[in-house]
Specification:
Arc Repressor Mutant, subunit A, 112 residues, 6 helices
Length: 112
C-alpha cells in the first residue's frame, strides 16, 4: 500500500513528464491510465487539482475521470525549464531520467 505522498509524487512525475513532452499540445489525462490498475485513485484526483491550484497546469474541464485538454501553464513550463546551478540539465529532463522525489520537492518549492 502506498502513502498519500508517494501517490502525489508518482502522479506529479507522470503528469509533468507527459505534459512537458507534449507541450504545446493539450492532452486528455485519464486517471485510470495513470494509476495502471484500473482503479480510481482519490490521491491522483487531489494531485491534479493541487497542480492546477498552484498554477503548474491547466485543464479545460473534468469529465468523470478525464481531465480534458490539459496543458502546462507558463509557470509550469518555466519551472520545468529551470536548470539548478550544480547540475547541467533542466528539471524536466531530470524528472524524465530519474523520477526522484527530490526533483518533485524542488518543483513544488519553486511553484510556491
Amino acid at each position: 500500500m502506498t502513502t498519500n505522498r508517494q501517490d502525489f509524487n508518482k502522479c506529479t512525475a507522470l503528469v509533468l513528464q507527459l505534459l512537458y513532452k507534449k507541450f504545446p499540445n493539450e492532452v486528455d489525462i485519464i486517471i485510470e491510465d495513470l494509476t495502471g490498475d484500473g482503479e480510481l485513485n482519490d490521491n491522483y484526483f487531489a494531485t491534479m487539482r493541487f497542480l492546477r491550484r498552484e498554477n503548474l497546469l491547466y485543464y479545460q474541464e473534468l469529465d468523470f475521470s478525464n481531465f480534458k485538454r490539459t496543458i502546462l501553464t507558463a509557470k509550469g513550463l518555466s519551472i520545468l525549464d529551470t536548470t539548478p546551478d550544480n547540475i547541467d540539465i533542466n528539471l524536466a529532463q531530470q524528472l524524465i531520467d530519474s523520477n526522484e522525489e527530490d526533483i518533485i520537492k524542488t518543483i513544488i518549492k519553486l511553484a510556491a
